[in-house]
Write a structure and sequence with these properties.
The complex is a heterodimer of chains A (about 325) and B (about 300). With about 325 residues, chain A is an alpha+beta fold. Chain A contains ten helices and ten strands. With about 300 residues, chain B is mainly α. Chain B has a single domain, classed as Formate dehydrogenase/DMSO reductase fold, CATH 1.20.1630.10. Chain B contains eleven helices and no strands. The chains are: A alpha+beta (about 325), B mainly alpha (about 300). Chain B: It is a multi-pass membrane protein.
């Protein structure tokens, strides 16, 4: 069963499962509340204010001007200099009976524009939609992706220098004066978030605006989001709010809504930044069942030890056989 | 490719990021580390059996390999002075931290063993260093498999049970090749046997890894990785066959040595390339995870 389905089956009003406390686990004696992001993609309008605010506040280098051909997404992916990435998914779906009329949980659900083949709405983005079957429409999903600040963070586990560390807020941050550019965190991340900058080799990713958190402020992306698609706060409160939002959407007939990364039982112990999605995770470029690779590390070491012993045994047996032959010769 | 049919992705973009490591640096390091580590084990066994010339040659090979390997690692950092950060902490959860400390201990020990063997000085200390290098050698040869598989790279993590045996076999074949190439014909008895055992171990582990990986094993068959893995198979088999003949023919020994070393290089570069290919295609990230979810769903009691 997928984590999304598990979320969908949670009864109304049941409190979210207890939030893991990675800051205490990392040795902070009395840490503040673990904070995080809840990104509710059902109200994302694709304005990219989060991307811009993140770039501005964190003084991230520009990505250059290139057109990807991926809808309005010319950012393409999270990376060393892109710590918020707005995904745009366009696809043809059967026309919904009611569109954009519901107002669940006191939040407006922004409507999806139906494409009328040959009509005015077909002039631009709807060219391929026009060829589609009658009674279909373009569904346009937008979602602002970010570092998940995992409870069990692979990047942090594998970092050989201690450059990556757990903050008192339960987030995961790289210290750029310690990072030595080994690049191990890059393939370790099950979400493909962290990346090295090609010019100097060091790795960079979202800090959840560690500097702003320390000053009691919310991260720049959440501050800039005009629709509260990006919500920041104590993780337990966000999870409770997300559960209510999910119930409201399901009651309103948005059965495809599901939470992603909210479950402390998942393969990374739950994410510090979790999402409400309107389709399968992989449609947004997210792994459907991410696991921290280090959870298999004890087994890997056991096999490496066994392989090492087999090597010793093979050489020992060969030497013993050769010695016996020499002795008998 | 059954899974491709109903597979969805975000514009075909990768989900996990492939490492930015240079193949020559890191796959080269996997090979050199294996050659050094297994060479130390073989050198100790040969020395115990009186094959002193081959043992000395392998000790020099080991220290040279581990030196080159360390240079490759430092080169891959971009800024060499940052290497010292590697020894800032001891971190058991990081195979790279464990490996850095392992190299920091193994390198000087292997160096002492080689220095004593070449100069003939301090034979007792040299024997202790030879033994120490032989104890650390298997770890140097196999930990790189853990380094690769402790990632989200589908072809590496998916084969995390088999990769250490594949690397150990490849390392033993390479070290045996070096012994056949560098040692006198009279001293090839042990290396002939270990060449065959290494080749067999590598082949068996490769077979098991492909079975485990299922559809992801395509990354070991296709493209650059496929070519390298096929070359590795031919070279290693040829090397093992020639090794069996090398007792009578010096030329066969040289040929076996070259083939086994080249086979080991191809194996490491092939595994490396397969990992990169598996990270770049989202089907290899989504496919196994979807299969896992389906299996979990099937085993769980239905609602």
């Amino acid at each position: 069963m997928s984590s999304a389905a598990a979320g969908a089956h949670r009864p109304h009003g049941e409190p979210a499962a207890e939030v893991p406390d990675p800051a205490s686990d990392s040795g902070y004696p009395d840490p503040p509340d673990r904070v995080g992001f809840f990104t509710d993609t059902s109200v994302c309008i694709g304005c990219k204010a989060c991307e811009v605010a993140c770039k501005e506040w964190n003084a991230l280098p520009a990505d250059g001007f290139s057109l990807s051909g991926m809808s309005y997404d010319n950012t393409e992916a999270l990376g060393a200099s892109t710590w918020r990435h707005v995904a745009f998914v366009e696809r043809q779906v059967p026309a919904a009976p009611a569109d954009g009329a519901v107002d669940p949980g006191g939040r407006p659900l922004l409507g999806l524009t139906p494409v009328v083949p040959g009509g005015e709405a077909d002039a631009g983005a709807g060219t391929d939609a026009g060829a589609g079957p009658a009674g279909s429409e373009i569904r346009w999903l937008m979602s602002s992706d970010v570092c998940k600040h995992c409870t069990h963070a692979a990047c942090l586990d594998v970092c050989p220098t201690g450059a990556l560390f757990r903050t008192e807020f339960g987030t995961v941050v790289v210290q750029d004066d310690i990072c030595n550019g080994c690049g191990y965190c890059v393939p370790a991340c099950p979400y493909g978030v962290i990346e090295q900058r090609p010019d100097d080799g060091r790795a960079f990713k979202c800090t959840m605006c560690y500097d702003r958190l320390g000053a009691g402020m919310e991260p720049a992306c959440a501050k800039a989001c005009p629709t509260e698609s990006i919500q920041f706060g104590p993780l337990d409160e966000l999870r409770a709010g997300a559960a209510r939002r999910l119930d409201a959407l399901h009651e309103a007939g948005v059965s495809e809504a599901r939470l992603y990364g909210h479950d402390p039982e998942d393969g990374v112990g739950g994410d510090g930044a979790f999402f409400l999605l309107l389709d399968e995770p992989e449609v947004y470029g997210l792994p459907p069942d991410p696991r921290v690779p280090t959870r298999d590390l004890p087994r890997m070491w056991r096999h490496a030890a066994a392989a090492g012993l087999a090597l010793l045994g093979a050489v020992g047996a060969s030497a013993a056989t050769a010695a016996r032959r020499k002795g008998s010769a | 490719m059954v899974e491709r049919a109903d597979f969805e992705s975000y514009y075909g973009r990768p989900i996990v990021k492939a490492p930015a490591w240079e193949a020559t640096d890191i796959a080269g390091y996997f090979f050199l580390g294996g050659l050094a580590g297994a060479g130390s084990v073989l050198a100790a066994a040969l020395q115990a059996g009186g094959a002193h010339r081959t043992a000395a040659a392998l000790k020099v090979t080991s220290v040279g390999s581990v030196g080159l390997a360390t240079a490759a690692l430092i080169h891959d950092l971009g800024v060499p002075s940052r290497f010292t950060h590697m020894l800032r902490v001891v971190k058991p959860t990081s195979p790279m931290s464990v490996g850095s400390w392992l190299l920091a201990v193994y390198g000087p020990v292997a160096g002492a063993a080689a220095a004593s063997a070449v100069t003939g000085r301090a034979p007792r200390a040299g024997a202790v260093a030879t033994g120490g290098a032989a104890v650390l050698g298997p770890a140097v040869a196999t930990y790189t498999a853990v380094l690769a598989s402790d990632t989200a790279v589908p072809a590496w993590h998916g084969a995390h049970r088999e990769l250490p045996y594949l690397f150990a076999g490849s390392a033993l074949a390479a070290a045996s090749g070096a012994a056949l190439l560098l040692g006198p014909s009279a001293e090839t008895g042990v290396a002939r046997a270990t060449a065959v055992l290494g080749a067999l171990g590598e082949t068996a582990a490769d077979h098991a890894a492909r079975r485990r990986l299922g559809p992801v094993a395509a990354t070991l068959r296709e493209g650059r990785a496929g070519g390298l893995m096929r070359s590795a198979r031919v070279l290693t088999a040829t090397g093992a066959a020639l090794a069996l003949l090398s007792g009578r023919s010096r030329a066969a020994g040289v040929g076996a040595g070259v083939a086994l070393l080249a086979g080991s290089v191809c194996t490491r570069f092939g595994v490396f390339a397969a990992g990169i290919a598996s990270a770049r295609d989202p089907v290899h990230t989504v496919g196994p995870q979807r299969a896992r979810l389906a299996a979990d769903g099937a085993s769980a009691a239905p609602d």
